[in-house]
Amino acid sequence: LKAAQADAATLRANAHEEAERVRNGAADAAARTKAAAQTDAERIKEDALLRQAQADELFRTKMAEVDEHKLAVEAELAEARAQTEAEERTLTRQSEDERTRLIAEAAAERERLDAESQARRELADQDFEIVLRGRRTDEYAQIERERNEAHAEALRLVEAAKAEVTRLAAIREDAHAHLRELHGRLGDQLEQSIATAPSMEPVEPSQAQEPAEAAD
């Protein structure tokens, strides 16, 4: 019985020692695992912060490029608008000058023809008593034909002036249409450039800490 008791005591002592050894080994393993997890968490956190800094830098670079392109497009649009408006003013001024010139020429030609007709009528009146009736009739017919021709010439010049004014107005309308088309193309290009710019949001530090907490 004493021997059995001694064996039982030895077994209990051995069991206590084994349990203590196992507990110590488990504690050491847990400490090593926790240290490794903390190291990984710090590394992951540093990587996340580095990626966040890189993303922020890339975002600022892309936004600077977008702003630079936007300024270039706006400058080009302003230059094109100014050039088109200058061309429009030039065409308008030229059309007004051409219309004034044609109207003045038509009026001068009409006055010249009227003066010639009046002079011939006066000459016919002065020769009324000495010119034969047949010749006087022919002269009046000639005067009438010339007056009709003068009237027709004046009408032709006026119609030519109106046609020229219409042509210049059509040119001005074409310039307006070209300006509107150019404005539309440049506006679409600007909107497309802004729309295609990468939208990158900075990574929050709290998101980088989540793997560390999961490891703990």
Please explain how this structure is put together.
This protein has 216 residues and is mostly helical. The chain is built from three helices and no strands. The longest helix is centred in the first third of the chain and has 125 residues, at 2-126. The model is unreliable at 200-216 (pLDDT under 50).
Summarize the structure.
With 216 residues, the protein is an all-alpha fold. The protein has three helices and no strands.
Radius of gyration: 52 Å
Average predicted local confidence, pLDDT = 77
Q: Name the beta content range.
A: under 5%
Class by alpha and beta content: mainly alpha
Q: Given the structure, what is the number of helices? A: 3
Helical residue percent? Answer: over 70%
Unreliable stretches (pLDDT < 50, length at least 5) are 200-216
- So what's the oligomer here? single chain
Number of strands: 0
The arrangement of helices and strands along the chain is HHH
Query: What would the principal axes of the Cα set say about the shape?
Result: rod-shaped
Q: Could you describe the largest sheet, including whether it forms a barrel?
A: none
How far apart the termini lie comes to 52 Å
Task: Please supply descriptive tags for the structure shown above.
216 residues; mainly alpha; 92% helix
